[in-house]
Design goal:
With 503 residues, this protein is mostly helical. The chain has 20 helices and 13 strands. Among the domains are: 50 residues; 91 residues, Arc Repressor Mutant, subunit A (Orthogonal Bundle). Helix content is 44%, strand content 10%. The chain is elongated and about 110 Å long. The termini are far apart.
Length: 503
């Protein structure tokens, strides 16, 4: 790739960043890094009515948590700043005026009531109202009015918008990296509003101007922006600018595979759709986040990479560096990608095994007051034994509580299975074997206890099942000898004595 690659992620700060937005940011990041390019964050806050306090910082925090930070953006390497559109509004009027001067745009003075009347009139006739070439001369704008009439309205301070003058009887041939060639008849396009009389541009104008001024080389965005491609392409032509290359990512679908994934789906099916927890500043409603639910950022990134992209191999586990190396926009699918809550758990389980036990011990300790006085090295040893069965740190207590507190009850079904008429006598004999083991190691325990069982010519289950029951309170957990070694000789003997008394 010869051109200097610059991509941008341009969310609106209208609330928390949806998982689909994170996927878009990730694909932009991967593409930039693969091509030694720049990943830009731009905050598109032209719609001040929908602005939500705290949303911009949430977006930045989410990207940082995922490990995909931006190179340029608000308060960071502001080479083409500012990076908030609300701080760039002085720029856009000049470009809107340029389009009017070149005949590619015009002033429209139609009131909301007038436009509503036309819409309803068309609906009654079974038609759809589109403001474009076929009716623009019948409406109130600088094309249907004389120059004097239009000037008089502007001088009088009447409300207006600036609309793009979409051409008639032309065919546009557009190229999308993912979707190939797209053919569009301009007769079906409406004359989109580019600029409002309140001094703010619409998304369409601001987006094109900013992408041009920030020298964006590739626009990688969601499929929902595909209908805007024709207008954006025409705007580049109208300005005489080179257009960036476009790539429209497939939708992320509900777990059922039908329809776009929404927050409601997460609420209904019990999984988050936001990277971080979000508290609505108006309602104080809390929305769950993947971070707070115990997911690792590596798991989320690995999972999201496969929503629409396929490396063409059997490999599923990728580090961020491996994703950068393998990523290719031409391997992104056109069809929607089904969101599978179980698959991200599968990824999380994998990354759990790669986590540092000491760090996991810190996280585990912070969740349980019972662990405050317990040595961190001990907790770390326990985690090393049980984490292969865990998906989240929150699973640890259920898998390991018997390492910290001796069982006081015993699983009824397991007790009937493990304890027979001669079991108490065997457990007493076993206790005496353990008492006389000087070097209390896993190897010594295995050698002496297995040797004793073999010598007595009894089945291993007759001893190992009641022993596990004594230590755990149920027939579950890691290797019995590992449990004994970690809890120590005195505690092991005490638990054997307890089970004999109880059963």
């Amino acid at each position: 790739m010869t051109k200097n690659v610059r991509v941008r992620f341009a969310p609106s700060p209208t609330g928390p960043l949806h998982i689909g937005g994170v996927r878009t940011a990730l694909f932009n990041y991967l593409f930039a890094k693969k091509n030694n390019g720049t990943f830009v964050l731009r905050i598109e806050d032209t719609d001040q009515n929908r602005y939500v306090e705290g949303a911009e910082q949430y977006i930045i925090d989410a990207l940082n948590w995922c490990g995909i930070p931006f190179n340029e953006g608000p308060n960071k390497n502001e080479k083409f700043g500012p990076y908030r559109q609300s701080e760039r509004k002085h720029l856009y009027k000049k470009y809107a005026d340029e389009l009017i001067a070149s005949g590619n745009a015009y002033y429209a003075f139609d009131s909301a009531e007038d436009l509503d009347f036309h819409r309803k009139d068309h609906e009654q006739k079974g038609k759809t109202f589109i403001y474009n070439w076929h009716n623009r001369l019948k409406l109130s704008n600088s094309l249907s009015l004389s120059a004097e009439e239009a000037k008089a309205k502007l001088d009088a301070g009447e409300d207006y918008v600036i609309r793009f003058k979409s051409p008639q009887d032309e065919t546009l041939y557009l190229t999308d990296i993912i979707r190939g060639e797209i053919k569009i008849d301009t007769n079906i396009l409406d004359d989109k509003v580019l600029f409002k009389s309140d001094g703010m541009p619409t998304y369409h104008l601001a987006n094109i101007v900013d992408d041009h001024l920030m020298e964006i080389s590739h626009v990688i965005r969601g499929e929902e922006w595909l209908p805007s491609l024709a207008l954006h392409y025409q705007l580049y032509q109208a300005f005489g600018w080179d257009a960036p290359e476009f790539a429209h990512l497939p939708l992320i679908l509900k777990p059922t595979g039908k329809g776009k994934l929404s927050k409601r789906d997460g609420d209904k099916m019990g999984f988050p759709v936001f990277p971080l927890q979000w508290t609505d500043p108006e309602t104080n409603e809390i929305s769950r986040g993947y971070k707070e639910d115990g997911y690792f950022p590596e798991a989320m990134v690995n999972f999201l990479a496969f929503l629409g992209w396929n490396p063409g191999t059997e490999q599923e586990i990728f580090s961020l560096e491996e994703l950068i190396e393998a990523f290719d926009l031409e391997k992104v699918n056109k069809s929607g990608a089904r969101f599978d809550p179980d698959k991200i758990k599968w990824f999380n389980h994998h990354y759990m095994q790669e986590q540092n036990n000491d760090e996991l011990a810190e996280a585990f300790k912070s969740l349980h007051s019972e662990l405050i006085e317990i040595d961190l090295n001990y907790i770390s040893l326990v985690i090393g034994l049980i984490k292969e069965r865990a998906t989240f740190v929150s699973d640890f207590w259920g898998l390991s509580h018997y390492f910290f507190t001796a069982p006081t009850t015993y699983d009824e079904k397991a007790s009937k299975k493990a304890f027979k008429d001669d079991t108490a006598a065997l457990m007493t004999e076993l206790k005496n074997i353990i008492v006389h083991i000087d070097e209390f190691t896993v190897t010594a325990l295995q050698t002496d206890i297995k040797g004793w069982i073999t010598k007595k010519e009894i089945g291993f289950g007759k001893v190992m099942m009641p022993l596990r029951l004594a230590l755990v309170g149920a027939l579950q957990g890691p290797d019995v000898f590992d449990i004994m070694f970690i809890i120590g000789k005195a505690e092991t003997i005490k638990r054997i004595e307890n089970v004999i008394k109880a059963l």
